[in-house]
Design brief:
Strand 1 and strand 2 form a beta hairpin. This protein has a single domain, classed as 4-Layer Sandwich (Double-stranded beta-helix), CATH 3.60.160. Helix content is about 20%, strand content about 40%. A 6-stranded antiparallel sheet has the order 5-6-3-10-13-8, with no helix packed on it. By secondary structure, the protein is of the alpha+beta class.
Length: about 260
Amino acid sequence: MAKFTVLGDIDPFLHVSLNQGERVYAESDAMVMMETNLEMQGRMTGGLLNSLARRLANGESFFQQEVVASRGSGDCLFSPVLPGSIELLDVGQRRYTITDGAFVAAETSVELKVKMQGLGNALLAQTGGFLVMEASGQGKLAVSGFGSIFTIDVEPGKDVIIDNAHVVAWDSTLTYNISATSLRSGIVRSLVSSVTTGEGLVLKFSGAGKVVLCSRNRDSYVTWLGKRVRGTGNDRLSWSPPISSTHGQNAHQKEHVSHGG
């Protein structure tokens, strides 16, 4: 069985050790390093139709990377696109639903499938619409979130409300509903409240199971960064070359000569 280990506390690597004949697959461009006993090839996880559906649901790459220990045992390193933590999940008795961009790597015994979600959730979902990704089978699954990762256990009778942009993955046995707010009633009042408070969509989880969430909001960060790069924000990014003391002295001397003349 492949051994998954998270290396480092800040922007960690996913380290995978493979015995001969074992294989793992990862999101496109996730592979950082591999030993020469290993071989990498492209694959369409679940076939053509499932690859197309996965692309529509979570924006994942059509082709994924598969690393095979074809010439003996070896190690490899993977890394997510965004800076942040990596969480290892055991798929088997629990299946997990994954948000877009969260998948890093998994054993080939773990299968990523696209499933339909309810009409209300589909209309309000941030990505995917009627389609979401679910991990099933048996084995290790690595997911990542923007910033730090925290795992909570939802208990019966203690529903949990989480901002949609901070959810990474959740136990598929949990019941969830998406709305524009958690405290107001009515879709119009909910949307108005969402705009005025600056909050986005929230997910309400109920039942018993695990939810993985991250500390940072990717879309808010991209918006913040874009404003400053374009120079439209109050704290826009700017840089001006420093004026050296020699340059200042020369300018002062030229001004003095000009006045003397």
